[in-house]
Amino acid sequence: MGHITSKDAYKNLEDRINWFTQGAPPSDTFYKILQVLYTEKEAKWVALLPVRPFTLKKAARIWGTTEAKAEKVLDHLCEKALLVDSTYRGVRRFVMPPPMAGFIEFALMRTRGDIDQKYLSELYYQYMNVEEDFVKDLFYATETKLGRVYVQEPVLTTENTLHILDHERASHIVEEAAYIGLGTCYCRHKAFHAGHPCEIDAPWDVCLTFGNVARSLAEHGGHARLISKEEAMDALERSYDAGLVQIGENVREDPAFICNCCGCCCEALQAARKFSPMQPVATTNYIPSVEDTTCIGCGKCEKACPIFAISMEEVREGGKKKKRPVVDTDICLGCGVCASRCPNGSLKLKRRPVQVITPVNSTHRFVLQAIEKGTLQNLIFDNQAFANHRAMAAVFGVILNLPPLKQALASKQFKSVYLDKLLSSAVNKSRKKK
Questions:
Q1: Whole-angstrom Cα distance, residue 203 to residue 187?
Q2: What angle do CA 355, 360, 365 make, to 5 degrees?
């Protein structure tokens, strides 16, 4: 009976995790991962929690216990980075982080003795690098991506810097952040323990988190440490020097993280290599262009590209054979790593002809992804998450600002008379303005 109870606890937790727009396909390996991260009691408790932010009072009510006892449990879960907390209008709120970027990564963002990190890393490697279902679902299940690439600012020309938008610059994110956390790179930490150390020996201490996520991870369990803007800029500079790609949350306002990624360890860049030409993350608004008159054909750009988007091809000029880099624009992320490695500046970043649209904030991204994945009803009807009009209005507000086609998809999924009336009202108002 105990074995059945244990299995039910983890199965319920697995089901709850898959209420996220971003889920985690079930497998024996994922079950073992949950067993490492959660005790049976923790699995049972967390499986009952809302997907969206909730208060101490709500958790106590769900668990049928006192607020004092519930707070001890919640604090412990924050210490393990299985929850993160924040304060809104003087009230402490908690939320389950998604699998990624979330509790999967947080477990390896510091050295810890309460879990077997080598065993966990091996499970992660099996789940993400061998079985692949999780990676395919994470990066390819929706048109709207979880992450987006930032351009390497040092390689931008004066012309570029005049036109680059604030949200396209990692330095702007650093400048605007209320809190900045620095942690261990989960990807390289995992790969090291799994027996696949980083091929370019990239630095580990360059994982940046921002805002309440950074504060919570730092205050509870030391999964990150709070740093100054100057130290964050130093982490970016060290990452530029190492030829790493900056990938952050795919939002314009208040991204929760910027990872500094190598092609050999990062799941996103590995997916870009493996499933090319499909893009696992949103690209920058730039693409490298080769100036043939100055290119010496050294091939350093080809070696530097983390996703193999550049190849050296032989051409004939004036009766002589020369090599020139060719950029596969269907694959290229526009990160600028290749340009940073060019010894004489023959690779220049140009604006893409079609600009990439970035979601405004996390709510906007969640709703877009839920519509695309067919799980909008999970956001709307989570029995805890949208129990008040303010939260419901926030979701409707995002839907009402979507293009007509995605509004129609949302309406079809939601099948709500209320939503249909809202959409019809918005259309009528728009027509009257014209």
A1: 11
A2: 95
